[in-house]
Amino acid sequence: MARPFLKFTNQQIEQVKTLAGYGLTNDQVATVMGIAKNTLYNNDELLAAIKTGQAIAATQLHKTAYEIAVKDRNPAMCMFILKCRHGWREKDQELDAAVKATLLSTIPIEKVQALLEERREENEARQRRSTVIDVE
């Protein structure tokens, strides 16, 4: 005989979302909730709660990193965001890290945002060109 279908309360679903938002893995969430991993993976409500919790946490982290970079004019965080989210690479840059950090800390935020946008467009164009070459 098959096991009965488990129905989770709104409170349990909210707890799954919170746990996922704290960075727990799906296996850890299942353990804390006292359910099997398969139950977690086979329940649409729980999977949606995990995805929502992870997305909320990622949004908060990205927002905090951006605020540290922009409001605090933190050169290290600026470079981290440029590399992770905007495609900057050390080999792409002619200036060493100290010079870049100095420049980023003295440039007005509007100029930094314009540079970020320009760099993003350059990377997209480079990716489009490499895609065309790969297809041929």
Number of helices: 7
Radius of gyration: 22 Å
What's the SSE pattern? HHHHHHH
Distance between the termini: 56 Å
- Please give the largest β-sheet: none
Please state the structural category. mainly alpha
Shape: elongated
Oligomer, anyone?
Answer: single chain
Number of domains: 2
Query: Level of helix content?
Result: over 70%
Low-confidence stretches: none
Give the strand tally. 0
Mean pLDDT: 81
**Strand residue content:** under 5%
Description:
Helix content is 75%, strand content 0%. With 136 residues, the chain is mainly alpha-helical. Helix 1 runs parallel beside helix 4 (44-70). The protein has two domains: 10-70, no CATH class; 73-136. It has helices at 10-21, 26-33, 37-42, 44-70, 75-86, 97-106, 109-135. The termini are far apart. It contains seven helices and no strands.
Which features characterize this protein?
single chain, 136 residues, mainly alpha, 7 helices, 75% helix
Q: Topology of this protein?
A:
Elements: H1 10-21, H2 26-33, H3 37-42, H4 44-70, H5 75-86, H6 97-106, H7 109-135
Helix pairs in contact: 1-4, 4-5, 5-6
Structure in a nutshell:
The chain is mainly alpha-helical.
